[in-house]
Specification:
By secondary structure, the chain is an alpha/beta fold. The protein has two domains: about 45 residues, no CATH class; about 60 residues, no CATH class. Helices cover about 30% and strands about 10% of the residues. Strands 1-2-4-3 form a four-stranded mixed beta sheet. The longest helix is centred in the middle third of the chain and has 12 residues. It starts with about 35 loop residues before the first helix and ends in an 8-residue tail after the last helix.
């Protein structure tokens, strides 16, 4: 069975970005500081470095919101991890292939179609 893990960085006062999030500052002004621990591998053996390394090695898929995609796709230049990446959105869109994976856009409508396929009873046919 697969394991679902939510991974997020948040300051002690509840912020996940800096102020003024936008195309010029996808994490907000100074927002990179909240996430530095995840990418700083300069001190080998530090517990957070080991956790980040283990987490990265076991990622099977990534789910992001449309705003994160809109602001992140250009700076990332690829999917965040070399695995399937699902973008939750209200707007239908074709998938976006990248160098190491693909962005698949999931709407409530695509979820409903998927659910109805699973719920359909098998029909018997006779010859």
């Amino acid at each position: 069975m697969s394991k679902v893990v939510l991974n997020a960085s948040m300051s002690l006062d509840g912020f996940m970005t800096g102020p003024d999030v936008g195309p010029e500052h996808p994490m907000g002004v100074g927002g990179e500081r909240l996430h530095e621990w995840l990418f700083d591998e300069s001190v080998e053996g530090r517990p957070d470095v080991e956790v980040a390394r283990e987490m990265s090695a076991t990622v099977g898929a990534v789910v992001v919101g449309r705003r994160t995609f809109d602001l992140g796709v250009e700076p990332w230049g690829d999917v965040p991890y070399p695995v399937p990446c699902f973008v939750l959105t209200h707007e239908s869109r074709e998938g976006l292939p990248m160098a190491s994976g693909m962005f698949t856009f999931v709407t409530a409508r695509s979820r409903a179609r998927s659910s109805s396929r699973r719920r359909r009873p098998a029909t018997a046919t006779s010859c």
